[in-house]
Design a protein that fits this description.
- The chain has 13 helices and 13 strands.
- The chain is α+β, with helices and mostly antiparallel strands and 439 residues long.
- The chain has 4 domains: 99 residues, no CATH class; 89 residues, Beta-Lactamase, CATH 3.30.450; 72 residues, Helix Hairpins, CATH 1.10.287; 157 residues, Heat Shock Protein 90 (2-Layer Sandwich).
- The strands form 3 sheets. It has a 5-stranded antiparallel sheet, sandwiched between helices. The protein has a 5-stranded mixed sheet with strand order 7-9-10-12-11, with helices on one face. Strands 6-8-13 form a 3-stranded antiparallel sheet.
- Helix 9 runs parallel beside helix 10.
- The longest helix is centred in the middle third of the chain and has 37 residues.
- The chain binds adenosine-5'-diphosphate.
Length: 439
C-alpha cells in the first residue's frame, strides 16, 4: 500500500523539488508555471490511463489488458494476473463439467435433469432411447408432455418418490423400466431410469417354475394321498385290489422321484460355479450302453439299431453326456408306437461329430420345435405323463450341450417321425482312439 502511495506521489515531489530549485534561478512565477505544467502532464497521463481502463472494462474478455506507466503499470499488471487466474479457474470448471457430462452420458442408466417446472434441462443418450426424447430438440419441454403414460404423469404429480415406478418404455413396449425420481436443490429433480426387462423375465420364469413344479408334484401326491386315505378308512383289506393300488402308488412315487432327479440335474447344470469334470469319453462304449438301455426301455416293442459311422471320442463330462443322450433315446422310445423303429447313430458331419436318434414315431408340428427345450414344455401333456415324462428332458439336453459348446439339431414331421441330434464342435472331438479309455 505504501509503495502505491509512493509511486503516486513521487512525481509530485519531484515537480515540487525542481520548482524549488528553479525559484531562486528563474523567479517565483516561472517556478510556479513549471510546477503547474508538470502537474498538468501527470494529470493528463492519469486521465489517459483511466480512459484505457474504462475501454478495457467494457469488454475484458476480448481485449488485452492495456499497458501503463508508474502506478498504472502496477494496477494493469494486477488486473492481468487476476484475469489469468480467473480464466484458469473457468477452464478448470469447464473441464470438470465436460468430464461429469461424459460420465453421465456413459451411464448404463437413463438420466434426465428436470427443473422446478418439470422441464427437461439435460438428458443422457440412454434416457433419449428409453423415453424417445431428445436432449437438443426437447430442451425445456415439459417431460409430462413427451412421456404421455398415465402412471408416469401421476407419479410425477404425486411428489412422493420413495418407491420407484415400474413402467413400459415409450419407445419399446417390450422394455420394462424402473423410474426413480430424486428431488434436489430448489425443487429440481433428477430422473434415473433403469432397464429391468431381464430382471422381470427372470422373476416371471421363477414364478412359472415354482407353479409348474408344484403342479407336477400335486397330481401324484393327490393319487397317493387318496389311496392312503381309502386304506385308512377300509374295514377289510382286499388284497388283490390293494396290490393294484400299491402298484399305482409306486408309479406315482417313481414319477415324483424322476421329477426331483431331473430338477437336481438341472440345478447342478445351471450352477455356473461348479466346474465340469472333463475326461476323454469313448463314444463307442457310450453308444453300446445307450443301446442296452434302449432295449430295456423298449422291452421288445421296437426295432432298435445302432450305426457307428466313426470311432472318435469326445472330451467332456461322461455323466452329463449320458444324461443328455439317454433323454433323447428315452424320448424316441416313448413317443414311438409299438413296432416303430429307433436308430442311434454316431457320425462325423464335416469337422463336427453328431450323435443322432431317429425314430419313426409321432413327430412334432413345426410350431412347437423352437420351444421344446423350455422347461416343462410338452406337445402332448397326457402322453408325456403317461410315459413317465417330466417335461425337463430336453431342457437338460440343451444345458449339457451348451456346456460342451455343442447344440441340438431337431427335424421332425408329424406322423412320420423325428430326428434329434446332439452336435459337438471340432474342439471337443478326440481323433486318436488310443487316447480313449478302454473297458
Ligand atoms: P418329456 O419328459 O415330456 O418327454 P422333454 O423335455 O424330454 O419332456 O420333451 C419335451 C416334449 O417334446 C415332449 O413332451 C414331447 O411332446 C416332445 N418330444 C420330445 N422328443 C420327442 C420325440 N422323439 N417324438 C415326438 N415328440 C417328442
Amino acid at each position: 500500500m505504501l509503495a502505491l502511495w509512493w509511486s503516486l506521489l513521487w512525481p509530485l515531489f519531484m515537480a515540487a523539488l525542481l520548482a524549488l530549485v528553479l525559484w531562486p534561478l528563474a523567479g517565483a512565477v516561472r517556478a510556479l508555471l513549471f510546477f503547474s505544467a508538470f502537474v498538468l502532464i501527470i494529470l493528463l497521463r492519469h486521465m489517459a490511463s483511466i480512459a484505457a481502463l474504462a475501454r478495457w472494462l467494457r469488454s475484458p474478455a476480448t481485449m488485452e489488458v492495456p499497458e501503463g506507466t508508474g502506478v498504472w503499470d502496477a494496477i494493469f499488471d494486477a488486473l492481468y494476473q487476476n484475469g489469468r487466474a480467473q480464466s484458469g479457474g473457468q477452464s478448470n470448471l469447464n473441464t470438470a463439467l465436460a468430464r461429469f457430462q461424459k460420465a453421465a452420458e456413459a451411464m448404463p442408466d437413463g438420466i434426465v435433469m428436470l427443473n422446478d417446472e418439470g422441464q427437461i434441462e439435460w438428458c443422457n443418450p440412454m434416457a433419449e432411447s428409453q423415453f424417445g426424447i431428445s436432449n437438443h430438440q426437447d430442451h425445456l419441454q415439459r417431460i409430462s408432455y413427451l412421456v404421455r403414460q398415465l402412471p408416469f404423469i401421476e407419479h410425477l404429480a404425486a411428489r412422493n418418490y420413495a418407491e420407484p415406478l415400474v413402467m413400459k418404455s415409450a419407445r419399446n413396449a417390450n422394455m420394462t423400466l424402473s423410474v426413480q425420481l430424486v428431488p434436489f436443490g430448489d425443487r429440481q429433480k433428477m430422473l434415473i431410469s433403469r432397464d429391468i426387462t431381464h430382471l422381470e423375465q427372470v422373476e416371471t420364469m421363477r414364478r412359472d417354475f415354482i407353479a409348474n413344479v408344484s403342479h407336477e408334484l400335486r397330481t401324484p401326491l393327490t393319487v397317493v394321498g387318496g389311496f392312503l386315505e381309502s386304506f385308512a378308512d377300509a374295514e377289510q383289506i382286499d388284497m388283490a385290489l390293494s396290490r393294484r393300488h400299491f402298484q399305482l402308488m409306486q408309479d406315482q412315487t417313481q414319477r415324483m422321484r424322476g421329477l426331483i432327479e431331473d430338477l437336481l440335474t438341472l440345478s447342478r447344470l445351471e450352477s455356473t460355479h461348479e466346474r465340469m469334470a472333463e475326461t476323454p469319453v469313448s463314444m463307442t462304449e457310450m453308444a453300446q450302453t445307450l443301446l442296452r438301455e434302449a432295449m430295456s426301455l423298449s422291452a421288445g416293442r421296437h426295432i432298435l439299431r445302432l450305426e457307428m459311422g466313426t470311432d472318435k471320442g469326445l472330451t467332456g463330462s461322461e455323466r452329463d453326456l449320458h444324461s443328455a443322450l439317454i433323454n433323447l433315446v428315452s424320448n424316441a422310445i416313448r413317443y414311438t408306437p409299438d413296432q416303430g423303429e429307433v436308430v442311434l447313430r454316431w457320425e462325423m458331419r464335416g469337422d463336427e461329430a453328431w450323435f443322432c436318434v431317429q425314430d419313426s414315431g409321432l413327430g412334432i408340428e413345426p410350431q412347437h420345435i423352437n420351444r421344446l427345450t423350455e422347461r416343462f414344455y410338452r406337445v402332448d401333456r397326457g402322453r408325456s405323463r403317461e410315459t413317465g415324462g417330466t417335461g425337463l428332458g430336453l431342457s437338460i439336453v440343451k444345458h449339457v450341450l451348451t456346456r460342451h459348446q455343442g447344440w441340438l439339431h431337431i427335424q421332425s414331421e408329424p406322423g412320420k417321425g423325428s430326428l434329434f441330434c446332439a452336435c459337438f464342435p471340432a474342439g471337443r472331438i478326440i481323433d486318436d482312439p488310443d487316447e480313449l479309455p478302454r473297458s
